[in-house]
Amino acid sequence: MSPRILLVGLGGVGAGYGSRLLDAGEDVRVLLDPERAARYAVRPTVVNGREYRFAVAEVDGPADLVLVAVKRVSLDEATAQLRPHIGPGTVVLSLLNGIDSEEVLAAAFPQATVLLAVSVGIDAVRDGRDVRFTSLGRILFGEPTNPGPLARTVTGVAEVFTRAGIVSEVPPDMARELWWKFLVNVGVNQVSAVIGAPYRVLQDADGPARQVMIAAQREVIAVANARGVDLGEADIQRWLDVLDALGPDNYTSMAMDALTGRPTEVDSFGGTMIELGRATGVGVPVNTTLHGLLKGAEAVRAVPHPPSPRA
Fold first, then answer.
1. 89 assigned to some structural domain
2. Which of 65, 110, 138, 202 has the smallest C-beta neighbourhood within 10 Å, fewest atoms?
3. Are 252 and 189 contacting, i.e. CB atoms less than 8 angstroms apart?
4. With b meaning 16 or more CB within 10 Å and e meaning fewer, what string describes 151-181?
């Protein structure tokens, strides 16, 4: 019998992977509150030009596998909505950016199994109910160290991804991979959001935006090293190899949020880096600047009609 899969979030990441699961015939349902469910009934999600109608989850027993793909600012709301769907046998994967969502979910659902997970190389973006991508990349997931006591559970999730044609990998040191993805996002998401640029601007090897991105990522390396995580320059190059293979005219989700006036995940990136810098005594001036610029831009967007400048 196919596992009951619950998808939380129909943005670029959630809809991208959800479409693959639905195409494979998996029993995948989406968690929506009544207001969102009503809007979804009128206009479903369109992925790469194809319409997808996900079944809306009902409270009729716990899910077997939960994929959480909301923005960090929506995690508390999602956690509250998830409670009736979580049981002792439920496996939860968080595909959120940042480095603390697994801790939040594990604290909220001690009866469930919360694995570590990151999505790498995906360039899916959402515009209204339309989602498009040229690459879904791959999902790295598992226990902090693999294989661990839950190896059979991890293998079961991998089998679901394989059936759906979702590329996945179980690294031996998943905790380190979580920090590597944080390094990626701190650089590319914040810089792309500040300048409102697609990937091609950051793919320019000699471009100033790429250099700022790398500078922000080097601060992550310094903080990680201070916490005993052995990130290094090779991890930046690993990211650049991924970056250069992405669709040049696509945008990060954070850039799209900034361009469309939606709240960004700046506090999960620059904000977290500022906190980590204080805790470790490591200077993070680039991330402090990016955080200030992005928070300032959000404050400007919050004013409906800014006054005209004086002559």
1. yes
2. 110
3. yes
4. eebbeebbebbeebebebebbeebebbbbbb
pLDDT over 60 at 98, yes or no: yes
Q: Do 168 and 54 sit in the same domain of this protein?
A: yes
188 and 151 co-located in one domain: no
Residue 45 lies in a domain: yes
Backbone angles phi, psi at 202, to 5 degrees: -85, -15
The answer, yes or no, to whether residue 165 has pLDDT greater than 90, is yes
- Tokens representing 305? 């009609």
Q: Which two tokens stand for residue 163?
A: 């059936």
- Asked whether residue 156 falls in the same domain as residue 42, the answer is yes
**Are 8 and 78 a contacting pair, CB within 8 Å?**
yes
Tell me the C-alpha distance between 132 and 134, whole Å: 7
Domain residues for the domain of 224 are 175-301
- Local structure of 66: helix, strand or coil: strand
Q: Which of 6, 2, 3, 112 is nearest to 58 (CA)?
A: 6
pLDDT tens-digit readout, 259-299: 988 888 999 999 999 999 999 999 999 999 999 999 999 88
Which of 172, 195, 215 is the last residue before a domain boundary? 172
Task: Provide the whole-model pTM.
Answer: 0.86
